[in-house]
TrEMBL record:
An example Gene Ontology molecular-function term: protein serine/threonine kinase activity
Pfam families named among the record's database cross-references: Pkinase
GO CC terms, sorted: cytoplasm; nucleus
UniProt organism field: Mytilus coruscus (Sea mussel)
GO terms for biological process, alphabetical: mitotic DNA damage checkpoint signaling
Record PANTHER family: OVARIAN-SPECIFIC SERINE/THREONINE-PROTEIN KINASE LOK-RELATED (PTHR44167), PROTEIN CBG02007 (PTHR44167:SF31)
Record's protein name: Protein kinase domain-containing protein
Lineage top rank: taxon: Eukaryota
Residue ranges of every copy of the Protein kinase domain listed in the record: 139-442
Length: 471
């Protein structure tokens, strides 16, 4: 039995204003060419959009998909998982089709002794007689670790026998791809993903039990809130911390690629920084879109992963995340230049930033990565351990610590203030770089500002020649 594995995943959603897009007229007029059933459904859909009960997003293949805010109606309209649950066929033909499918499945289970799940770590998952059930073998706690698009809440559960905690993720079969598990298991020795304890099929949902990443924060949260605290503590921390994360994430992604997997969904909610005894490590979660390096999409996935790593770097360093990978590749020179000017970066820091992004974008194969890693290492003119300790104190501060910062309740305001403050410190040229040759770069304007004309191919070519690292 084969299953369709590339089911759509909603990547982002966007509101559609029906009033403004000319759909406010008579809806029946709009759908008159459709069949009666489709007419009824389309009208319901448009009404849901109008009432903002539903939003339209795009899946990973850029196809529009509907996402309902209300779980019940979402099931009705957007649940391709009507598998492994009871069905009530409406016609005799349908009875035959459904019976055949069900009997085929029973036959398959019998023939292959197919289990409903696999326990990979019995020290965390104490199944009894082949079952691992809520209320019996484990209990749910009230702790919610996060929320995903394809998964619901990721919650903490407690094993009744061992009293150990795990993170529990569930998703509908339609969202599930077997590569999620295959990549995860292949990477288990690396320590990059959380340890996978068990996965199983129950009804029309896949259940995953995994290591709870303690003392972990997603890059989403770090970009959105914690960078403000870091800059408030010391504006000079932004550069080394961003380089540190760039380096850590690049190594993790490189290891993943060497193990034969591309992730293809490295958005900031899928990367976590975890603190353990003052050391910050990079963890990657959610292999829901993973594909083998040697698949047809391997190279695309590889390039996308590398671009995503750089986007995390710019998001942390200069608060520029870019709208998409395409936006990044197309507009990075303009956008980075604007933000670098806004942050009043020194000439040396700007040259370093442009050089790193440019080098990363030239990575097209696995064998190019070590050169980028070397270049990155030469920029890391700080002690990673003490940096890690210093930042960990800020990132993983107890609430009492944060409350001493007067603006901690309004981090957005704080970030704005810091940006302004950095703007006024432009003349002091606060570079944290200690590179003897950095003053010799080709750019000869002394205002430290780059203009669009300056960031051109010649500029980048010169950078490559001077660093000797371009290729
Ligand atoms: N093992 C874990 N430990 C701690 N937090 C976790 C863990 N797994 C997931 N989370 C949290 O839950 C969130 C959603 O998890 P996950 O990315 O696996 O769900 P998803 O539905 O596949 O996400 P997406 O929105 O990327 O499709 C994460 O961003 C993270 O905050
Ligand atoms: Mg995710």
């Amino acid at each position: 039995m084969t299953t369709e594995t590339d089911s759509p995943r909603v990547l982002h959603t966007q509101r559609i204003d029906i009033q403004e897009s000319g759909l406010s007229g008579d809806l029946t007029e709009l759908v008159k060419d459709l069949s009666p059933t489709s007419q009824a459904r389309t009208i319901l859909l448009l009404q849901s959009l109008r009432k903002n009960e539903a939003v339209i997003g795009v899946d990973d293949q850029k196809r529009p998909v509907i996402q309902y805010k209300d779980e019940r109606s979402r099931k009705l309209w957007w649940d391709a998982s009507n598998a492994n649950i009871l069905t009530k066929p409406r016609t005799d033909d349908d009875v035959q089709v459904k019976m055949d499918a069900c009997l085929e499945m029973i036959d398959y289970l019998k023939k292959h002794k197919a289990p409903s799940g696999v326990v990979l770590d019995p020290t965390h998952v104490s199944s009894k007689a082949g079952y691992y059930r809520e209320g019996r073998e484990f209990t749910k706690t009230k702790d919610v670790l996060g929320k995903g698009n394809s998964a619901g809440d990721i919650i903490v559960i407690k094993d009744k026998t061992t009293q150990t905690e795990s993170a529990h993720k569930t998703m509908m079969i339609s969202y599930f791809r077997e590569e999620e598990i295959r990549a995860w298991v292949d990477l288990s020795e690396t320590g990059i993903p959380p340890a996978l304890y068990c996965f199983k099929l129950e009804g029309n949902r896949i259940h995953i039990f995994m290591e709870k990443i303690d003392n972990g924060i997603t890059l989403r949260d770090i970009i959105d809130t914690h960078m403000g605290n870091i800059r408030a503590e010391d504006p000079n921390l932004a550069r080394p911390f961003s380089l540190y994360v760039f380096h850590g994430l690049l190594s993790a992604v490189h290891t993943m690629h060497q193990k034969g997997w591309t992730h293809r969904d490295l958005h900031p909610g899928n990367v976590m920084l975890q603190e353990s005894e003052g050391v910050i490590q990079t963890r990657i979660i959610d292999f829901g879109l993973a594909k083998p390096m040697d698949s047809e999409d391997g190279l695309r996935g590889f390039r996308s992963d590398i671009a995503e790593v750089v986007r995390k770097f710019t998001a942390l360093y200069i608060d520029e995340e870019f709208d998409s990978e395409t936006d990044f590749r197309k507009n990075w020179k303009d956008k980075v230049q604007q933000m670098a000017n806004l942050y009043a970066m020194s000439k040396e820091d700007k040259v370093e930033l442009f050089s790193l992004i440019d080098s990363a974008l030239q990575v097209v194969s696995l064998s190019d990565v070590p050169r980028l890693q070397e270049e990155l290492a030469t920029k890391m003119n700080f002690d990673p351990q003490s940096l890690s300790k210093q930042v960990a104190k800020i990132l993983f501060a107890k609430p009492e610590f944060l409350s001493v910062h007067p603006d901690s309740q309004d981090l957005e305001t704080e970030l704005q203030k810091i940006k302004l403050a950095m703007g006024t410190s432009k003349k002091t040229g606060q570079s944290t770089m200690d590179q003897a040759d950095s003053g010799d770069f080709i750019i000869d304007d002394d205002d430290g500002y780059f203009t669009t004309e300056e960031i051109n191919d010649n500029f980048l070519d010169n950078l490559r020649k001077q660093t000797g690292l371009g290729w």
